[in-house]
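Thread: quick sanity check before group meeting

JM: Hey all, I'm pulling together slides for Thursday and realized we never actually wrote out the predicted structure for the chain we discussed last week. Dropping the sequence here so it's in one place. If anyone has concerns about the input, flag it before I start.
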Amino acid sequence: MSAARRLGPSSANTRSAVLDMVRSGGTVTRTELAERSGLTATSITRIVKSLIEDGLVIETGFSESTGGKRSSLLELNSTGRFAVGLSLDAGRLTYVVTDLAGTVIGRLVSPGIEQAGPSEDVVRIARELGQLLVQLDIALESVVGVGVAGAGLDLGAGAERLSITSTEWESFALSKALEPRIGLPVVRDNDAACAALGQYWAGRVPATQDFATLYLSNGFGLGLMVGGSVARGASSNVGEIGHMVIDIDGPQCWCGARGCLEMLAAPRAVVAQALEDDDLAAQLGLTGDPQRFRADFEAIARAAAQGEPRCCELIKRSARYVAAAVLSIVNVLDLDRVVLAGPGFADAGALYVREIRDTVSRFARTRTIHPVVIELADPGLDAAAGGAATLALQHALTPHAAPGR
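JM (edit): ok, ran it. Output follows.
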């Protein structure tokens, strides 16, 4: 279906879709844009002219000659605009600044949101964000906006998602509090959705390719890209893979079900299993403090990556459950790409990839039709923050694909 028929008569939406085709194409010609969009050559010429005038697209040379006049090559003007992404996390705040192509050009890490409340942290966020832009010598007027990623956050302030780690951040009107302090529009989404969006934009994934990003921090989340947009569902709860039931006779989950992935394979579960081995807990210096389970999990993951046998078995056990969940997602949605992202995969991500890849390659329903790529995000630790910056870019520059705020 052509962009014109799919998006209707809105000129803003059509312009937005053409810019998105330039983004995903890398370098394209006006002729290729006309063929892909279904628009006339005259319409494409007019739209491209406006994109060049606005500094969003540049001409970078000419295509190879086919006997006639060579066509100009077009691509995103990566330095034409910038965006800021912020990942809210109990352990740390991660800020990144990206160019128009989604490439990270600067970052700042500061203490997390464990201590102060949102109203106090907003003051610090505004200050640190401003400092980063000054350090990078980026003028405020060239920044299209700020995207914020966090566990349980969606685009609507006050819309809460059920979570064992729910905090007042989930219902805090962040945009209303932060925008006047920084003079930029603010949009927000959950970390898994942002990580998926970042892969879509910076990886130049075309809107015709659907894929999922599995995000691991305190627990599991799934960001699902469909047709160039993040899938939402009736209540913005698409992607609750942590509550996929893996074992109907498994342990009771706080959500009311039994045998959820979160209870079997998330960091809390891995730490609880490790603490059953007193010798291992002492060797790794595990605290057993419920407030520091992330640090304990990271110690286990690092040891597993270094080959410690007991830790390897703990991570592999977790990975087997995760692989079963991913296999079901792949089969249900007929995906050909799943990306692993987030701080939970920082140390032992390769072990998870190996287990998931093996399971999917052997048992995916469509394995004889197409392969399924299982890979780690790059950069994994900045995936949510980079994706949050992409969220701001999408809202400002390709609104046809962005959900309402």
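AS: nice. Residues 98 and 277 are 44 Å apart (CA to CA). The longest helix spans residues 309-333.
JM: adding both to the slides.
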